Give the backbone structure.
Amino acid sequence: MQGLMQDYPLTIPHMFHRVERLFPTKEIVTALPTGRQRLTYGEWADRTRRLGGVLDRLGISADGRVATFSWNTARHLELYFAAPCTGRVLHTLNLRLFPEQVTYIVNHAADEVIFVDKTVAGLLWPLLPTFTTVRHLVVIDDGGPFDTSAGVPDGIELHDYEELLAGADAVEFHVADEGLAASMCYTSGTTGNPKGVVYSHRSTMLHTMATMFADGVGIRETDKVLPVVPMFHANAWGLAHSGVATGADLIMPGPDLSPKALAELIESERVTVAAGVPTIWMGVLPELAGRDTSALRIIPCGGSAVPKSLSEGFREQVGLPIFQAWGMTETSPVATVGSIKSTVADLPEDELADIRAMQGLPLFGVELRVLSQETGEAVPWDGESRGELQAAGPWIAKTYYDDPRSPESFTDDGWLRTGDVATVNAEGYIRLVDRTKDVVKSGGEWISSVELENEIMANPKVAEAAVIGVSHPKWQERPLACVVVKEGEELTKEELLEFLDGRVAKWWLPDDVVFIDEVPKTSVGKFSKKDLRSRFEGYELPTA
Ligand code: ADP
């Protein structure tokens, strides 16, 4: 027997119409170099409808890719809705990708138009001749100094955003098919060229709802949401959509992500939700000292491991620990959240801090499993046994966009292989140990490069450190520590090994330590082990 409910499509115009009708006086605030710009959702909705008219006027195809090269701003939010609500596909370009990667993804996605903020136009301009499908370039004047009078290559038309909007008619938004692509985002390409992830209207609607769950991030109408996490990387963790869906005020930080500017926004706009990666909060914490942060209710944080000390630092100073979440571009991105179950809530504060340092529980709607890499079986929930974390659910990618590498990342039964190594404890909390490519496989056992480098970085003389596996005739691989010593300090291999003795198991101690000037980073600032591995390929470990 079939259910008898309406087959009502889950499409993004629903969010748009709701905020337009119910919350027209709520605000989107953008911090621009020229000052703070305040726009009501009513004004925003009118501009967004006219932007839909602009896309028609420019002749963008029915499912044409509309690229953005933009900070978190109200205008970027106009594009976030005008493209999918007219059936086109929003393609957010990551401002921090290497130039050749930007060229690759613009051409691979076949972008027809790029909307670019003037503050970052200088990064894009030299690449224009390398784009093969782009026909229009629209400059958004956000107060940046770039001079556009040099013009653009033949075949591309240059426009001004506000001029286009002023001359455009508002259009109706209607999308009937929830399976259509709404937006796309490329991974940051930690290994090889970036891979395209394509979100549907349905996946975006469901992921947005999940960020509104009380046991998720719990975005609600009374919130003032500050997404520090970029709208160009993994959809600002869904906060741009859930802000609109709930009618919450959005506080957009624009180009200035300095700790002082963010602290100032948090205080003066009475922000309730502030979301960003750990390095952002490391910088912001000292800036919050002495400020009124009483409006803050949750600080979502992820993208890389959240150090316990950072979360505890916030708890002590701001009265609110960090709320850790885990996810990937491929998972829309939120897949786990660090909510505290009632069954553990009475544990001593220090144990709670350990739980908060984990990646958390699967969000309702997401299925996770951790499979042993030896047996392929699910590992026991003992908090110790490790395996590869795999994910399934309505907002998890099933394949990459037009990419022959897809089969490597998906299992035969359709789960996403996250490439992360994890444990699960008896309460179901996931703890990430490492990435599968980065664990050091020593004699059939795994050494977590992340845990080892965290212990090395606990040495006060160490600025940063990365651990890689190098091949070993007997053990297959052994750890090599690549260490950057703080300026003005001196450190020897012996001193470091002595420091580690007792902090990690004996067989985890690195076989050698090399001192380097800097750990190479990916475009989004994560350690690039790939570069380190090629630099130390064939490295001969001492034999004693
Ligand atoms: P990329 O693979 O291009 O770096 P993402 O930005 O989507 O792309 O990063 C996803 C990865 O970031 C995850 O697979 C995981 O390794 C890491 N990550 C995300 N959140 C966390 C977290 N809370 N703790 C530890 N690592 C995290």
